[in-house]
């Protein structure tokens, strides 16, 4: 028996003095209201209403229990209200500052379709260390993996070794690879450093930028290259290619939040989160 529904029927019928009117107030059939009150009487062990007269009245037993039934209904209503408010409370999730706003908007819309009111907060890599966040992790343990390549203003570079200085380049500045702050992590930076050394690049040809804007500007204004995802290259109007001798990728996972919400992000929201990060399907 649904104790709350039965109590609602009992209180409504007692208030209106009629099963018909009480049922109409609850928007349920009269027969349903009658069954619920009868079930409540059987559960409590006594008649709550006197049905012998033309108007339904409270019995002595029913009059004694009416205040408790009213309190139960108020508590049930408060519980449902609090539950709805809790469901609508925004879930703050710090995300990489490189996530494009249109993709974040689509993620928020997709999350609402699954009952999650997501509030993404773009932040730098170090600022995402506390609270629920999309964290940078090595790609072999990442839920989302974003391949990186080299982007240039003109033709893409398919091999790092093509940037090796030669005698023919004497007098011209060395072409540099700009690493954005999001990729200033060991599993990316160290791989790029090793690949550059193996290709014969000078140490000064690998530069960690202060911001993505700075790094992209260098690639747009000269011969330098930007280490980035294909999505970032497209957004900045740069030609992009994975480098055959540069196997690097970003890895991401979501951490430090309610397990059910983290699971939702990793499963049903996997694609829209990946779109924010630049995952290529």
UniProtKB/TrEMBL annotation:
Pfam families associated with the record: HTH_1
Residues annotated as transmembrane: none
InterPro entries per the UniProt record, alphabetical: LysR-type_TF_proteobact-type (IPR058163), LysR_HTH_N (IPR000847), WH-like_DNA-bd_sf (IPR036388), WH_DNA-bd_sf (IPR036390)
Gene Ontology MF: a single term: DNA-binding transcription factor activity
Alphabetized UniProt keyword annotations: DNA-binding
Domain HTH lysR-type, chain residue ranges per copy: 1-59
Annotated PANTHER family: HTH-TYPE TRANSCRIPTIONAL ACTIVATOR TTDR-RELATED, HTH-TYPE TRANSCRIPTIONAL REGULATOR
Family: Belongs to the LysR transcriptional regulatory family.
Descriptive protein name: DNA-binding transcriptional LysR family regulator
